[in-house]
Design brief:
Largest sheet: 8 strands, parallel, barrel
Distance between the termini: 25 Å
Number of helices: 11
Order of helices and strands: EHEHEHEEHEEHEHHEHEHHH
CATH superfamily: Divalent-metal-dependent TIM barrel enzymes
CATH class: Alpha Beta
Strand content: 5-15%
Strand order of the largest sheet: 1-2-3-4-6-8-9-10
Low-confidence stretches: none
Number of strands: 10
Number of domains: 1
CATH architecture: Alpha-Beta Barrel
CATH topology: TIM Barrel
Mean pLDDT: 97
Shape: globular
Radius of gyration: 20 Å
Length: 325
Amino acid sequence: MEREYGAGIWLFGQFVDRYAADGYGDPVTTIEAIEQAAKVGRLSCLDINYPFAGDSVSVADVAAALDANGLTAASITPHIYTRRYRKGAFTNPDPQIRAEAVALCKEAIEVAIELNAGYTKFWPGQDGHDYPLQVDHERLWHDELDGIKQVVDSAPEMQFAIEYKLKEPRVHMLLCNAHTTMIAIDEIGADNLGVVMDFGHSLFAKESPAAALQAVHRRGLLTSVELNDNRLEWDDDLVVGSNHPIETLEFLVAVRKIGWEQPLLLDQFPFREDPVRAARLSIDILDAMEKILDQMDLDKVAEAQSSHDAVAVQRLVAQAMLGVG
């Protein structure tokens, strides 16, 4: 089975952390990142940040670059997690900054429409807290849902999605796992709001990514699927399958079970690696895993699962992945 793949445009950007504050490479404009993404050769679409990187980069410039490089916009993700929003975007204690976050997201909707993107994504990375008693949790929840609702209600024709994460940049992000996010969506009550299912974020949140994916899909909320890997204690955004190959395989089984046919997006941060090579490797690993699933007897897997026979399932996996007899 051959899948279609996309990526977050940040995979090809400049990476900065609190130690290498000068960056792990030179600044990269949105146009340059699109050109780098095209070099991967197997990407069809990009999740694009807004505002764009680079001086005077316009929507028309981005549209032209995408077209010239055979790519499309999968989604638009507004920057509601930068220094301006260090105390929160939708949950900022300053009502003026909360209003600015809503306004920026509404701008992103217009960009998404112009680029024919499939959805507009919320990643409210600064919405949360760092210390006990720092915030009124009820107030935080109210402000978060109110801000998101203002945006999604303003464009009922646009699909929106929330990407949850346990922590970083906040010590504890408000929309921290799949079920908290689904509760928030239920309370907002908007039919055009769903979930971006990020494999690494789910691992990081101590979920079973396969179970979380199926739960989100069961509620009709799955908007996009992103893949990467980590060491469980941080959102490392490593090459797919580099640390959790069997969990990744299980996740891909779940992707098949739900009949997901949209592009799988790579969400990686290759701080010290060549981004094109890192993206290609992830795609090659995913292709190899799809071939493993093509060859596995999934009926036997289901039979073993029906009796919760862990050893039988692990033998089937070991046979497919390692050639164990």
